[in-house]
Write a structure and sequence with these properties.
The protein has 16 helices and eleven strands. It is α/β, with parallel strands linked by helices. A seven-stranded parallel sheet has the order 4-3-2-1-5-6-7, sandwiched between helices. The longest helix has 22 residues, at 363-384. The model has no long low-confidence stretch (mean pLDDT 97). The structure holds NADPH dihydro-nicotinamide-adenine-dinucleotide phosphate (NDP) and magnesium ion. Belongs to the DXR family.
């Protein structure tokens, strides 16, 4: 039996992870769960999975959670409680499925305790990829990619010599606005941007997919996970989302990984790694009804966020953390209907231009860059209104 904890158990990835746990009765023991404020779902999950420890970050819900649960479950609150869940001594694997930079410290805590990570929370690698990957190596910790593209690459690279890899090719669905003419981007609403054609996900990543910042963050994520130079990582739009990514090898061969677009497949792969198990969740790809697989170049004019991410990682140091924090803030402003969809890349680019880079930052300095970028976004916003 494998012992797992889930940071962000009430989110889209958290719920899909528990779906895999349900499908394999007796294979997994849930040690810890956490949420930010979705107390109702967290209580339901605790009653069903009887974890040893649970954390609610929003402390106003602490008493309600405590009162609802049996005494055997240790109840924590606040950000400190996330560290307790992440690094519980019984954990074999911690699934990092918090959205945004809030997942950074608990994930570091788990790595420092030598616990393997199932990584969905890509923002923390964007922010601090150099530090996290070094720390994982030092503590002999595996960073197992949950993100479908990275899980695909991980499978394609299995057993391959790194020297034989010519290029990583990340596929992108193109999001809801792939075929929307550039002149109509001005009128995009929040509801339209949340309507992803292929995946059902949390709000932040849905907006990132609509701007294609998600693919930019994934380029940075792939750079750190597989130690491949960023200029050897390319993005190709593949609207059917059947191929989840590809590896181009020096001998002219390509390997691609495919499954029905549902996160339970990469999650199951991570949960059982290094085994491949027969799945009760198995779904066949009906290739004949898919008919054809299409590919096209991403349109940088319509999706400038993709290029901003390349720019940030080429500059390096504090810039990717600034890109990430500026993106988190502008996405939040857009979700609150405070700015337009087209303002997102403009504000991020303005903040990146203003940033004074700090070389070789440590975690505290990256956190300061993150805080600075959020303030800078809000200054841009104040000038706009
Ligand atoms: P959701 O918004 O659905 O869930 C986020 C989870 O994190 C929830 O449990 C939420 O709690 C919790 N949370 C939110 N803010 C905080 C905070 N400040 N501190 C602690 N916990 C917090 O996101 P997703 O599941 O969609 O995405 C999670 C991560 O996985 C992201 O990094 C995303 O990019 C990545 N990912 C997601 C995919 C998907 O299909 N959804 C695919 C590939 C990667 P509460 O419910 O209480 O708000
Ligand atoms: Mg992805």
């Amino acid at each position: 039996m494998k012992n797992i904890s889930i940071l962000g158990s009430t989110g889209s990835i958290g719920v899909s992870t528990l779906k895999v746990v349900d499908a394999f009765s007796g294979e997994f023991r849930v040690i810890g769960l956490s949420a930010h404020s979705n107390i109702d779902l967290l209580i339901k999950q605790c009653i069903k999975y009887k974890p040893k420890i649970v954390t609610i970050v929003d402390e106003t819900h602490y008493q309600t959670l405590k009162n609802a649960l049996p005494h055997e479950i240790e109840v924590c609150a606040g950000t400190g409680g996330l560290n307790e869940v992440a690094a519980h001594p019984d954990n074999d694997l911690t699934i990092a499925a918090i959205v945004g930079s809030a997942g950074l410290y608990p994930t570091i805590e788990a790595i420092e305790c030598g616990i393997d990570i199932g990584l969905a929370n890509k923002e923390i690698l964007v922010m601090a990829g150099s530090i996290i990957t070094k720390l994982a190596k030092k503590n002999n910790v595996s960073l197992l990619p949950v993100d479908s593209e990275h899980n695909a690459l991980f499978q394609c690279l299995n057993g391959e010599d790194k020297k034989s890899v010519r290029r990583l090719m990340l596929t992108a669905s193109g999001g809801p606005f792939l075929n929307l003419p550039a002149e109509d981007f001005n009128k995009i609403t929040v509801a339209q941007a949340l309507e992803h054609p292929k995946w059902s996900m949390g709000k932040k990543i849905s907006i990132d997919s609509a701007t294609m910042m998600n693919k930019g963050l994934e380029v940075i994520e792939a750079h750190w996970l597989f130690s491949v130079p960023v200029d050897d990582i390319s993005v190709i739009v593949h609207p059917e989302s059947i191929i989840h990514s590809m590896v181009e090898f020096v001998d002219g061969s390509y390997l691609a990984q495919m499954n029905v677009p549902d996160m339970v497949f990469p999650i199951q792969h991570v949960l059982f790694h290094p085994e491949r198990r027969q799945s009760p969740l198995f779904r066949e790809i009906d290739f004949c009804s898919v008919g054809s697989l299409n590919f096209q170049k991403p349109d940088i004019n319509k999706f400038p966020c993709l290029e901003l991410a390349y720019e940030a990682v080429r500059i390096g140091h504090t810039m990717p953390a600034v890109l990430n924090a500026a993106n988190e803030e502008t996405v939040m402003l857009f979700l609150n209907d405070a700015i337009k969809f087209v303002d997102i890349p403009c504000i991020i680019s303005g903040v990146m231009d203003q940033h004074k880079i700090l070389l070789n930052p440590n975690i505290e300095e990256l956190k300061q860059a993150d805080v600075w970028a959020r303030q800078a976004v809000n200054e841009h916003y104040t000038k706009m209104v």
